[in-house]
Amino acid sequence: MGKYLRITIEINTMKNIGGEGRISLFEKTSSLRAQIENIKAFTTLLWQNKSLSDGFYLHIQAKLEEVSKQVAGWQKYLAQGGEKHAGLGSQSNRQK
User: Fold this and answer.
1) Rg for the chain (alpha carbons), in Å?
2) Which residues in the chain come in under a pLDDT of 70?
3) Which of 70, 71, 84, 95 has an alpha carbon 20 to 30 Å from 35's alpha carbon atom?
């Protein structure tokens, strides 16, 4: 889970890297969302194999669904040009 927390922190604090080294926030959120879906699938397998209690499984699935919806919201915002509107990656906007 530390890996996913790190990616979330990177997304929240990401600075635009100019030129070919630029990392897209949309790409990061896509990666994070795919990883969340993997965790959801593995927790379902663990629950089906009786390795997780019903209560724990329901708790984890609810949290993962909440995070997935937040990341989907970020993606929607970024797809609509939110990266530009928020001033993300703009050196002059970060200094204001």
Assistant:
1) 16
2) 1-23, 82-96
3) 84
Domain count, the chain: 1
Classify 24 as helix, strand or coil.
Answer: coil
**pTM check: above 0.70:** no
The alpha carbon dihedral of 59, 43, 69, 27 has a sign of: positive
The pLDDT assigned to 22 comes to 41
Task: Identify whether the C-beta of residue 55 lies closer than 8 Å to the C-beta of residue 41.
Answer: no
CB neighbours of 67 closer than 8 A, spacing ≥ 6? 36
Q: In terms of Cα–Cα distance, which of 73, 68, 81 is closest to 33?
A: 68
Residue 88 falls within a domain, yes or no? no
Owning domain of residue 64:
26-81
For residue 94, tell me if it sits in a domain. no
